[in-house]
Design goal:
eight-stranded parallel beta barrel, alpha/beta, 8 strands
Length: about 350
C-alpha cells in the first residue's frame, strides 16, 4: 500500500511537471505572443506575488517615439511597462512590442494596464480588457488595475478597432459624467472573472485611499496585489504604506520624481529641492536617483517615465533586484530622516480639480 501511494504521487508530480514545462515552452516564444492559450490564473493570483521593482511608465510617450523608447528600454533591462487606455498610446506601444528587435521573450516582460472609468459596470469590464489586449497585441496582462475608484457613464467603442478615435473615455465634463450607481464591489467581481478566464494574471487598484482598500479587502475573493499611488518626498503617504504592508498589498509609486513637467506655476520643483541636491552631491548622483533610491529603501516599487536614453539609463542605476550599478548608492538613516522631513502632503495629481464634488483623497 505505501508503495502504491508513493508511485501515484510520483506519477502526479511527473504529469504536473510535464504540463508546466509545456506551458512554459508555449509562453516563451517571443514578446509578440498574442495567441495565448486559455489558462486559469486563479491559483497564481492567490500565490506569492512578484514584479520588478523599477518599471517604465508610458504616460506621455508619443506615438511617434513609442518604438524607439520601448526598444531602448528593453535593451537597457527594463522588464516592467505600465500602460493605460487613457494614455492613448497603447496601440503604438503594442506595435513596438510586436516589432521589437530586443529578443526578450514575452514571459520575461511584466505588462500592466488599467480599467478606464467608463467601463466599471461588470458587463463592460471584459470587453474593455480585450480591447486593451488587442491594442497591445498580447494574449494576457500580468497586472490589470482599476485606474480610479470612480465610475463614469459608459462610452461605446468598436472592439475590433485598435486605438481610440478621440479622448472621450477620459472626459468627465467636470464630474458630470460620473456614474454613482456603479459599486467597486461589482467592478471587482468582474475583475476576478478575468483572472479565472486566464486573461489577467493579477489584479489590483490605483489611487485607492486606505478606507476604500480596507473595504475591498473585506469581500475580495482574489485580493488586490497592488495599490498604485502618487508618492514622492513631498507626498510620502507613510500611513498608507504601513496599512498596505500590514495587508500584503504591494505599493507602486507613480510620479516618484514629483511630476516636474505638470506642476503649476508657484508649486515647488522637487528636483530643485536644496536638501535633495545636497544629498545627491554627497553621493555623486542626480536628485532623481536619490528620489528613486529613497523610494526603494522604503520598500515599494516605482514607475519612472522618460523617453530619453540617458534618463532611462540613469533611472536604472539604483539599488534594486536587477541593478546595473557596480557601486549602487545606499542612503544613510540620517539622510532618510532628512528626506522624511520634506513631506508636505502635496499632490501633483489632484482629481478634485477635474471632478466637482468628488474629493477622492479627502
Amino acid at each position: 500500500m505505501p508503495v502504491y501511494v508513493s508511485l501515484r504521487k510520483r506519477l502526479k508530480i511527473l504529469i504536473f511537471v510535464a504540463s508546466s514545462l509545456s506551458t512554459v515552452l508555449y509562453l516563451s516564444s517571443s514578446i509578440i505572443s498574442s495567441g495565448l492559450r486559455m489558462i486559469n490564473f486563479t491559483n497564481i493570483a492567490l500565490a506569492a506575488f512578484h514584479m520588478p521593482k523599477v518599471g517604465l511608465g508610458t504616460l506621455g510617450i508619443s506615438p511617434s517615439e513609442a518604438s524607439t523608447v520601448i526598444n531602448e528600454a528593453l535593451s537597457l533591462g527594463y522588464r516592467l511597462f505600465d500602460c493605460a487606455p487613457v494614455y492613448f498610446n497603447e496601440k503604438e506601444i503594442g506595435d513596438a512590442f510586436h516589432e521589437s528587435t530586443s529578443g526578450v521573450p514575452r514571459t520575461d516582460v511584466f505588462i500592466t494596464s488599467k480599467l478606464a472609468s467608463p467601463f466599471h459596470r461588470p458587463e463592460h469590464v471584459e470587453p474593455a480588457l480585450r480591447k486593451t489586449l488587442n491594442d497591445l497585441r498580447i494574449g494576457y496582462l500580468d497586472l490589470f488595475l482599476i485606474h480610479w475608484p470612480v465610475a463614469f457613464k459608459y462610452v461605446e467603442f468598436d472592439p475590433s478597432a485598435r486605438g481610440w478615435p478621440d479622448e472621450e473615455i477620459d472626459e468627465s465634463e467636470g464630474g458630470a459624467r460620473i456614474d454613482p450607481s456603479v459599486s467597486i464591489r461589482d467592478t471587482w467581481t468582474a475583475m476576478e472573472r478575468l483572472v479565472d478566464k486566464g486573461l489577467v494574471k493579477y489584479i489590483g487598484v490605483a489611487n485607492f485611499p486606505v478606507m476604500l482598500l480596507h473595504d475591498l479587502l473585506s469581500y475580495a475573493r482574489i485580493p488586490p496585489v497592488v495599490n498604485q499611488v502618487e508618492i514622492h518626498p513631498y507626498n510620502q503617504q507613510s500611513k498608507l504604506l504601513s496599512y498596505c504592508k500590514s495587508r500584503n498589498v504591494a505599493v507602486q509609486a507613480y510620479s516618484p520624481l514629483g511630476l516636474p513637467s505638470y506642476k503649476e506655476t508657484g508649486e515647488p520643483d522637487l528636483l530643485l529641492d536644496p536638501v535633495l541636491k545636497e544629498i545627491a552631491a554627497a553621493h555623486g548622483v542626480t536628485v532623481a536617483q536619490v528620489c528613486l533610491q529613497w523610494s526603494l529603501q522604503r520598500g515599494y516599487h516605482v514607475i519612472v517615465k522618460s523617453s530619453k536614453r540617458n534618463h532611462l539609463e540613469e533611472n536604472q542605476l539604483v539599488n534594486h533586484k536587477n541593478e546595473f550599478a557596480s557601486n549602487p548608492i545606499r542612503l544613510t538613516s540620517e539622510e532618510m530622516d532628512r528626506i522624511a522631513s520634506l513631506d508636505r502632503n502635496l499632490r501633483f495629481t489632484r482629481p478634485d480639480d477635474w471632478w466637482k464634488d468628488m474629493p477622492v483623497f479627502n
